[in-house]
Specification:
Length: 199
């Protein structure tokens, strides 16, 4: 089955007042995400991967420890990553549900400490990649970072929150100020109800 580009769950200009411009979403969703969908669909066409779910393709094509992943993984994983990313943001600032607030406080000591560690993970990811809040295999909450398109599925983890730190995610709005972009993401863009629903 070919990959399909999901619609954004809000208009392209809906996040502009919160620090993510219409131009960024037009390039990020309509160009970059679409490229992963189109390229990935061509790569799996006529192969055994075509009958598998997106998650099965991601985990099945991932090569642990490899210096470079193959194109099927890269495009499938980035399609999955971005599909989650759009859902993890909202133009309607939501309060943090008590369950996720308690889990974050228990795991990191405070929300401020969580934010500090999450931003540090994204800033510390050399080159392109993602920073994540995940449920690890033992059920604990952890902050991780992954290179390029690698995501928590590859490590048997559940993604609760992910922030794209590829330059195309922030360069139009923030130029080289990756820390400011991630701080704004946590402060203004996260859909905490969506995050809580993933627990």
């Amino acid at each position: 089955m070919a990959f399909e580009l999901p619609d954004l769950p809000y208009p392209h200009d809906a996040l502009a007042s919160l620090g993510m411009s219409q131009e960024t979403l037009e390039f990020h969703h309509d160009v970059h995400h679409k490229a992963y969908v189109d390229t990935g669909s061509k790569l799996i066409s006529g192969t055994g991967w075509e009958q598998m779910s997106l998650e099965e393709i991601v985990t099945g094509s991932y090569k642990p420890g490899a210096v470079a992943q193959d194109p099927i993984f890269n495009n499938a994983s980035q399609h999955w990553n971005h599909t989650q990313f759009w859902q993890m943001m909202t133009p309607n600032k939501t309060g943090m549900p008590s369950e996720i607030e308690k889990r974050i406080t228990d795991a990191f000591g405070s929300f401020d400490e969580f934010k500090k560690q999450f931003v540090a993970a994204g800033v510390g990811q050399f080159g392109s990649g993602w920073c994540w809040l995940v449920v690890d295999k033992d059920g604990s909450l952890k902050i991780t970072k992954t290179e390029n398109g690698v995501n928590p599925l590859c490590h048997g983890q559940k993604a609760l929150l992910g922030c794209d730190v590829w330059e195309h995610s922030y360069y139009i709005d923030y130029r080289s100020k990756r820390p400011v972009y991630i701080e704004n993401f946590v402060d203004n863009l996260v859909n905490w109800e969506n995050v809580a629903s993933r627990l």
